[in-house]
Design goal:
The protein is an alpha+beta fold. The chain is built from six helices and four strands, in the order E-E-H-H-H-H-H-H-E-E. The longest helix has 12 residues. The radius of gyration is 16 Å and the shape is globular.
Length: about 130
C-alpha cells in the first residue's frame, strides 16, 4: 500500500510505500516528522533510538500534528495499539526510561544517563544519591 501525506504542517508532501513491517515503517515516519538526533534529552529520539518506535510515535503524535505518521499508524492499527489503548511497546518503554534517565533538579527535564548536563537548561547532573 502506498500512502501520501503532508509532513507536519510544512506543506511538504511525502509519498511512501509501506513495507509490511510495522515497527520499521512507524520508525521511518517518526524520523520524517521529527528529524531529531538529540538522544540525550529528547524522549521521542530516545524512544526511537532504543527500539520503541510505537512509543516514539505516540509521544510525537501527542505533541504536534503528524499527518504522515497518522497515515502510517492507521495502516498498522492492529500492530500499533495494545488492548489498554497505549502503544504495544509502551510498558517496556516506560521501564527503559525509568532505568536510563535522570531528572534535572533545575528544570525537571529527564536526560539520558550518558549525559552529564541537562539538555534543556545545561545544569550539571546531580550526584547519584540525589537522582530521582
Amino acid at each position: 500500500m502506498r500512502i501520501k501525506a503532508e509532513i507536519g504542517t510544512s506543506g511538504r508532501i511525502k509519498e511512501f510505500e509501506l513495507t509490511g513491517n510495522a515497527a520499521d515503517d512507524v520508525a521511518y515516519a517518526v524520523e520524517e516528522e521529527h528529524p531529531c538526533e538529540d538522544t540525550t534529552s529528547c524522549d521521542i529520539a530516545m524512544a526511537l533510538e532504543n527500539g520503541f518506535p510505537f512509543s516514539a510515535a505516540f509521544l510525537l503524535k501527542s505533541a504536534t500534528e503528524t499527518p504522515f505518521l497518522d497515515k502510517v499508524t492507521q495502516a498498522y492499527y492492529e500492530e500499533f495499539w495494545g488492548i489498554d489503548g497505549m502503544p504495544k511497546d509502551w510498558d517496556n518503554w516506560v521501564d527503559w526510561y525509568k532505568e536510563n534517565t535522570w531528572k534535572c533538579l533545575g528544570c525537571g527535564n529527564h536526560n539520558h544517563v550518558d549525559s552529564d548536563t541537562c539538555g534543556n537548561c545545561l545544569a550539571a547532573r546531580p550526584d547519584d544519591d540525589e537522582d530521582e
